[in-house]
Amino acid sequence: MHLSPSRPRRKFEDLAIGETRISSLRTLSEAEIVDFARLYDPQWFHTDPSAARQSHFGEVVASGIHILALWRQMDHEMNQDIDFVCGVGWDNVRMKKAVRAGDTLHATSRIVDLRASQSGKARGTAITEYAMLNQHDEEVISFRSINLVYCRAAVTGA
User: Fold this and answer.
1) Which of 28, 51, 7, 47 has its CA nearest to residue 132?
2) Number of domains composing the chain
3) In this structure, are residues 147 and 84 in contact, taking their beta carbons and an 8 Å threshold?
């Protein structure tokens, strides 16, 4: 495997417990919420503004799947310099607050644990706590992500 200029530069050895990052802001419109839901989560309180007024929420709210898709974009922005192998799981996923049209969101990441491979493979495991927050700094979703990250030896052949 050869190191290419487009490959992320930070390897497992470069990561530190406690490392925290914050994404840029993203404001959701009602049209975006409804369009996403019609394709991927067609529950009436996500897709029908009139009917949603009679729901528990009183208006259209974003699907949790939509918020996780936005998180994925924000995570790529925040952590694009990390040479991930892949994600292998999420723990403690909590949808804490409804996201409404006009809400402005950002994501945070904090590495809470780093584990070298026990199998001898040139990768390690990074456990990261993620959250998405609204414009009032209220968490709307949170979870822990388990990610495999390449070690230097994986790309240098050492």
Assistant:
1) 28
2) 1
3) yes
56-84 pLDDT per residue, tens: 999 999 999 999 999 999 999 999 999 99
Separation of alpha carbons 60 and 69, rounded Å: 18
Q: What pLDDT, on the 0 to 100 scale, is given for residue 6?
A: 77
Model confidence at 136: pLDDT above 60: yes
From the list 106, 110, 108, the residue with the least C-alpha distance to 136 is 106
Report the DSSP beta bridge partners of residue 108: 22, 131
Tell me the mean pLDDT in the region 95-116.
98
- The pTM (predicted TM-score) of the whole model is 0.90
CA 50, CA 3: separation in Å to the nearest integer?
A: 53
> Coil, strand or helix: which one is 117?
coil
Residue 62 lies in a domain: yes
Under a CB-based contact definition with an 8 Å cutoff, are residues 107 and 75 in contact? yes
Tell me phi and psi for residue 19, to 5 degrees: -60, 125
Whole domain around residue 53: which residue ranges? 12-156
Instruction: Please check whether residue 3 lies inside any domain of the structure.
Output: no
Please tell me the distance from the alpha carbon of residue 109 to that of residue 129, in angstroms, as a whole number: 6
